[in-house]
Design goal:
The protein is an alpha/beta fold. It contains 13 helices and 14 strands. The longest helix has 25 residues.
Amino acid sequence: MRVLVIGGDGYCGWATALYLSNKGHQVGILDSLVRRHWDLELCVETLTPIAPIQQRIQRWRDLTGKVIDLFIGDITNYDFLFKTLHKFQPDAIVHFGEQRSAPFSMIDREHAVLTQVNNVTGTLNILYAMKEDFPDCHLVKLGTMGEYGTPNIDIEEGYITIEHNGRKDTLPYPKQPGSMYHLSKVHDSHNIHFACRIWGLRATDLNQGVVYGVLTEETGMDELLINRLDYDGVFGTALNRFCIQAAIDHPITVYGKGGQTRGFLDIRDTVRCIELAIANPAAPGEFRVFNQFTEQFSVSDLALKVKEAGKALGLKVEINNLENPRIEKEEHYFNAKNTNLLDLGLQPHYLSDALLDSLLNFAVKYKQRVDNNQILPKVTWQR
């Protein structure tokens, strides 16, 4: 297929573009490179050294003989997006091109507005371009498990069947986002659902859990193809931060009580889920939702796993609890369903198998690049 990966210079997008190219698809990357700009704005760097996108793509071509087309521009610019789609003629669009950090969206009003405009407007532009000239194209959109929040009932995959006053219906699952970023993803889901229902478009919304890991088969071929490992307080995940802290002999910083529970998956499973969604497209008019994760852990669970894995590398790891900068339930029920992708053939990787090879070993190898000033949180959810 001809697959356009929007946001293909980012963490999930880069791994996906290489994976799909390696599988024989004709891949194009569309990216504004704004993620690199935000690193400069925040004075942070990924732990792993990331080459310019043109250099990365050329190295991929040198190693494999496979060509990835590159389109640099912003999908909030409709004319640019429309011209790119006509030039590339995609069969499927994989949409990672969004601001993806909850803390970034909560820095201040400007960053909240930037997040909403970038994410919601960009997705709306894609939907209108599909409606106009690409109605048979399949949109595979990265959502987030954070759309659901932490309800005191099981989390279904996108929809829930309810009975009320003697009547029964299946409706979109209620959303309780915890940040302006997560709220933007809820708006995306509603807009895509509308476009499928009214215009007959086809879309798959992948409500993804927290992704971890540096290595895929493709990103491990050469250091110029290496993927990001963000650990700072804005774009870094708790698991990444814990691994870097373990590597530099800094106490692991658990926010609050550590009972916050989320879904997790290996980056190798992310790219496989994308492949499965593309190979098994939604029907015309269908807005399909998959919960994309393989395991569930609390923050305290992660801290203990990193501490245990650190012992194998001779690391002495301590765990400290900090005041939680976020406004969230720290102890809650969390049981989410994730059977759709498993039914399509996903064979999960597990954190216990990846923690050393795809996280801690990289943290130790590149620990000289760690900026200690970026370890602790700087953004708070102030009431």
